[in-house]
């Protein structure tokens, strides 16, 4: 189909006549089921829309501008079960809907980052959420794509021959971001070697993003922050089937089926995604690889009675990528650069929750992850197999009306096997964490302390504290401070990204020291109603930074020997500004700006591939009577230092230009059964091209304008 027809389709959707419709309000009160006490700062939203409100100190809420008719309304709060009810809203009238929420312990405090809902979570630790609705709107096929366009979060691709990538938070390298699945830290350096593209978006309920030292309460490795992947759970009996197809041979298929009864919930998801290679600079080698991924996930919940709940889950994913010479990728030649990563990841988890009383709960969790990576390059196979076993026991006790104590004990075992470099490495980590939530007046203070014993590096103590204060109803002040510690990795990412340029060996360093960090974050949020703005300052000091360095090169055998070295210290600081508003009926805006200054503390040089200035924004219009939504999204990526290869070393390269990417999308719902969508990513087709042949790694997009069409059937 021609480009003109593609644009005509989107413009036709955008031109549907605007109807205001008759509206009413929804009011009510949210209380605790066991005590009847009001729950302040609970979130009450109209499901399937952007309408919502937060409760005041007496637990009351008011949602204006609700279209007349029948709606599903959901209420949620930190530490409580989410409850949904149905209300019929009369035109120019009001519907009263009260909620009684049952107590439930949770790991994090999610809230969607979409106006007019709150930009930050209702707790002292700043938490942003990418919801399932936002993921669908992005047409994201995997977790890495779902994290695009988030303030302070940068998704980077590091290698055009393998699409290896990482997620950076607040200018810190991806290795300082801890990725968890349902709160379990089972994804390691090896498991994220080729990025998060092997984790399908079809199985994601939401993504919870914690920036700065607040993530250290989840893991001492979360120096930059943490991303928690919350997988889908059954909330009804039914399912959905979706397909997206578009440019560059992109095809994403996904299906979800759920069964829900009073005591049991079962969810199964199946997804498949593929794309063709792209050669931007026309040198005959891929700048974006050919890939094919299939994934299956199962999750079951069973209430056993007497406060017992059992959750069991399992997943398996297979992905194959082909990068390098296009003729070889197509099977027409056996010559030229070629990489063929094959990834297999699977694992079960089981969680037993026991709540003997409203104020007391215990959790026992076990998880196993098996990651297998085989890469064909330099005419041979490079393999890395890793097993991760996690056993965790946690307890929570509410001590009166204003205090809650939590404690966790955990044991983690990792076994890494590589065929040519590291050999076999085994690591055991024992840890204990204690956290105390104290509330008085408008204050909330959450100190925590984590003690870990590493089998190779001994004990570590990483304390931290977070606080929140509400001097007035629409104003919230937040602050956090924490110490972090990251033990040297057992896995060498660099020697797996580009093994096609020769032979590699990895030399163990007995003098290596763990990386240590000190981080702080200060923020303020103002949320009077249909407008919300939040600003934050952050700084992280990292010492004993670890990097992979080339220490020896044999020109005859082309054997490169690498080693992990402590190379100094960095300082990373900056600020973020996020806002959201709904100026007039149907229209909404959200945007964010981040300034990041990341430097070597000894030399003062700026770190490579960190933009000092970045921003993103979205303008959306939703016509509820017509079930139509149109959005325009933009992303600005500021100039950044680059690197290039010279005499087997990476040396400073030219500064990249500042560029802006635009994306447009339209979606039309037909009742509650069918949704059709169309979109254009990278509307003006901006790509990095010429510098690739100069051996400058990727700093910009390697695919131009992409048109896609999608359909989702819900039953």
TrEMBL record:
CDD domains named among the record's database cross-references: ligand_gated_channel (cd01347)
Ranges for domain TonB-dependent receptor-like beta-barrel: 247-683
Any one GO biological process: siderophore transmembrane transport
GO molecular function terms attached to this record: siderophore uptake transmembrane transporter activity
Keywords: Cell outer membrane, Membrane, Receptor, Signal, TonB box, Transmembrane, Transmembrane beta strand, Transport
Membrane topology classification: Multi-pass membrane protein
Protein family: Belongs to the TonB-dependent receptor family.
Protein name from the UniProt record: TonB-dependent receptor
Source organism phylogeny: Bacteria, Bacteria division WOR-3
């Amino acid at each position: 189909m021609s480009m003109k027809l593609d644009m005509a389709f989107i413009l036709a959707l955008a031109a549907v006549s605007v109807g205001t419709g008759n509206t009413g309000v929804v009011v009510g009160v949210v209380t605790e089921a066991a005590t009847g006490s009001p729950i302040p700062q609970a979130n009450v939203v109209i499901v399937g829309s952007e309408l919502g409100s937060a409760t005041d100190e007496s637990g009351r809420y008011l949602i204006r501008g609700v279209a007349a008719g029948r709606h599903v309304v959901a209420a949620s709060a930190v530490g409580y079960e989410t409850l949904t009810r149905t209300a019929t809203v009369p035109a120019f009238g009001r519907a009263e809907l009260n909620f009684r929420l049952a107590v439930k312990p949770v790991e994090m405090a999610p809230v969607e980052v979409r106006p007019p809902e709150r930009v930050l979570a209702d707790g002292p630790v700043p938490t942003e959420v990418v919801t399932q609705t936002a993921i669908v709107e992005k047409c994201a096929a995997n977790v890495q794509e779902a994290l695009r366009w988030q303030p302070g979060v940068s998704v980077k691709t590091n290698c055009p021959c393998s699409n290896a990538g990482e997620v950076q938070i607040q200018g810190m390298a991806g290795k300082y971001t801890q990725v968890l699945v349902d709160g379990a830290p089972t994804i390691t350096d090896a498991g994220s070697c080729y990025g998060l593209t092997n984790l399908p978006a079809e199985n994601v309920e939401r993504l919870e993003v914690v920036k700065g030292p607040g993530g250290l309460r989840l893991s001492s490795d979360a120096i930059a922050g943490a991303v928690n992947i919350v997988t889908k759970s059954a909330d009804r009996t039914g399912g959905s089937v979706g397909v997206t197809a578009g440019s560059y041979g992109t095809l994403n298929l996904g299906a979800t089926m759920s069964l829900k009864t009073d005591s049991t919930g079962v969810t199964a998801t199946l997804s498949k995604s593929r794309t063709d290679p792209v050669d931007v600079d026309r040198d005959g080698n891929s700048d974006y690889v050919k890939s094919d991924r299939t994934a299956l996930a199962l999750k079951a919940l069973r209430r056993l009675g007497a406060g017992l709940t059992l959750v069991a889950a399992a997943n398996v994913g297979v992905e194959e990528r082909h990068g390098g010479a296009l003729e070889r990728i197509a099977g027409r030649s056996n010559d030229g650069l070629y990489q063929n990563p094959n990834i297999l990841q699977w694992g079960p988890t089981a969680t037993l929750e026991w709540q003997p009383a409203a104020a007391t709960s215990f959790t026992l969790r076990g998880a196993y992850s098996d990651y297998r990576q085989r890469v064909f390059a330099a005419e041979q196979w490079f393999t890395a197999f890793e097993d991760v076993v996690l056993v965790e026991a946690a307890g929570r006790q509410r001590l009166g009306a204003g205090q809650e104590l939590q404690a966790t004990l955990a044991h983690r075992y990792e076994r890494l096997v590589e065929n040519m470099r590291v050999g076999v490495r085994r690591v055991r980590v024992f840890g204990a964490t204690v956290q105390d939530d104290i509330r008085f007046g408008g204050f909330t203070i959450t100190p925590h302390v984590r003690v870990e014993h590493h089998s190779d590096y001994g004990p570590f103590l990483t304390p931290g504290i977070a606080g929140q204060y509400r001097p007035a109803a629409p104003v919230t002040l937040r602050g956090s401070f924490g110490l972090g510690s990251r033990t040297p990795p057992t896995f060498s990412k660099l020697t797996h990204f580009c093994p096609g340029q020769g032979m590699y060996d990895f030399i163990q360093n007995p003098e290596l020291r763990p990386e240590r960090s000190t981080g702080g974050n200060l923020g303020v949020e103002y949320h009077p109603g249909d407008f919300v703005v939040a600003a934050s300052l952050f700084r992280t000091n990292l010492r004993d930074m670890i990097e992979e360095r080339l220490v020896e090169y044999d020109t005859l055998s082309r054997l490169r020997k690498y080693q992990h070295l402590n190379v100094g210290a960095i300082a990373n600081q900056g600020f973020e500004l996020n806002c959201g508003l709904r100026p007039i009926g149907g229209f909404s805006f959200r945007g964010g700006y981040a300034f990041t200054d990341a430097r070597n503390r000894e030399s003062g040089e700026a770190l490579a591939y960190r933009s000092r200035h970045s921003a993103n924004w979205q303008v959306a219009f939703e016509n509820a009577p017509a079930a139509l939504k149109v959005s325009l999204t933009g992303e600005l990526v500021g100039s950044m230092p680059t690197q290039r290869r010279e005499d087997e070393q990476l040396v400073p390269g030219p500064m990249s230009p500042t560029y802006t990417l635009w994306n447009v999308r339209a979606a039309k719902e037909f009742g509650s059964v069918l949704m059709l969508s169309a979109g254009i990513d990278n509307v003006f087709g901006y790509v990095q091209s010429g510098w690739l042949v100069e051996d400058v790694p990727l700093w910009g997009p390697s695919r131009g304008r992409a048109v896609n069409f999608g359909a989702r059937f819900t039953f």
